[in-house]
Amino acid sequence: MKRSFRAFSKGIVARMFLVCLLASFAFLLPGFVPHTLAASTASVTVNANSSQGVIPTTAFGINEAAWDGLLLDSKLPSLLSATGARVMRYPGGSLSDGYHWQSNTTEASYAAPNNTFDAFMGLAQQAGIQPMITIDYGAGTAQEAAGWVQYANKGGPSYSGPVPTYSGGSSTGHTYGIKYWEIGNEVYGDGTYGSQWELNHKTLGPTTYANNVVAFSQAMKAVDSSIKIGLVITTPGYWPDGQTSSSSPKPWNDTVLPIACSASDFVIVHWYPGSSSESATLATSSQISSMVSSVRSKLNQYCGSHAGAVQIMITETNAGSINTGQRATAWYTGLFLDDMYMTMLENGVANVDWWLTHDDLLSSGACSGSTCDPPAETPFPPYYALQMLTHLGQAGDTMVSSSSSQSLVAVHAVKQANGKLAVLLVNKDPNNSYTVSLNLTGYTASSTTTIYTYGTSGGGITSTSGSSSSVTIAPYSLTTLVLQSGSGGGTPTPTPGTTPTPTPVITPTPTPGTTPTPTPGACKVSYTVNQWSGGFTANLTITNTGTSTINGWTLKFTFPGSQQVTQGWNGTFTQSGANVTVTNASYNATIAAGASVNPGFNGSWSGSNPSPTAFTLNGASCSVA
Prior knowledge:
With 625 residues, this protein is an alpha/beta fold. Helices cover 21% and strands 29% of the residues. It is globular, with a radius of gyration of 27 Å.
């Protein structure tokens, strides 16, 4: 049936009138919010003077597996290096309990024939990543574990240890210097509490495991005393934490820690908090403080004076999956990664390792039925999220306190060693943008800043310039602002994986054997501490208050108590009794007039933890900030 243009026009007018009438009534309804409103507002506060600890060298990690068909892909080293990850765990989850390194064979799962230990180390070295090795507890022996340490770290012309039977092995071993070694994977999943997914040929139960950890640790450290041994514990609040059975009359953690803590240097926690919805999963970061605190409480309860030296490492984690196929491809997983990594580190965790390289960070290109992943090595959202953290901070930078007025906008802040202040904003709201105002304490920023953004618009991380006082963040996005000091900022941050070259200066090189001395009193030192029972992180800021450049520096101070340095960064730390000496690293030997350097360290203490009251730099006394 035909309609005249006039009749059609009348119909349009009538419909427009009806829409406007309904809209006018809608505004009168309680709770009505039109979608065309401007971005909501949020306020973020950052206190640059309030340290949350220093980012460890082991902070950002990933997992790799011997079954990975793309482990030897030529594109992989550069892709991994660009994430900023500096720890890579191998040979991969439950495969580890049954993996015989010398033959590259496994009694659990599958090891690709070419993915040998030597092949993995080739990847790690090309990517500039330090390995973390999971020893075969389920089917292995202390002797086999010690042999792996010997082959990896104690090679040389006179090497007489075990030699791989696979192609490509070395008859003289290696000097890789691998530091971190886990004794088994999720050993509590061996049937001790009913469910079984972990291979274990030994007697079940935490007592047997703990006694074996002591034996493994002794055998491995007899080969290389510098290595660190990891002990498997259950995750507080997650099954089978707190469970008992015939082979475990007491819960796992209450059994293994009293026996094996003294033989261990870190505890191994796996955290998979995936929930029933995206919003619920993104909210799980609120569990982290309590979870880490529970672990630290158990260490304090059972490890005595050794508790402060035991690190907490989250060697497996990811967001889980709400629906099949969403674990890596959904945007929320990237938001989860950044918020989770930083919250863990702010709570004193030393290492976080994302599970897994392929299918969770990068596409494997695999198909399931008619559904296929993107082409191999296509980055997923967690990949870009991990890369975003390279703009926020690196090892040796200081995490500082921050807060947000909006529960769906998470914030993390880092005072970088170069003097810049970086602020990460995580918008967990899938529908709304927020205009965020920044309120800074202890830092005066220049008016403009570099802004890095990653979100649902696709592609990788983009950068632009913007205001340092306010920024609008898109729904489901990551935004990092890198603020420069109002006085002009500092030395550029070293590129991950490279050693920065000191800026050439005109100051003559000191005669070998002598120490250059600044003008007496032309230095200032601040010493800030973030401590917990038995342990602490100290951040030092050394400022050249003189008028000439310092070329090479040595800082000395004396602990008033029984403190011991356990790990340092941005300098070489030595300790004799209570006396501590810190010498410059290769990349921060020069301190220009008015500039600063930021060495720091982790330490242990007992009794009390008073701060040093006097410092000398190249023999001259410094004022104390």
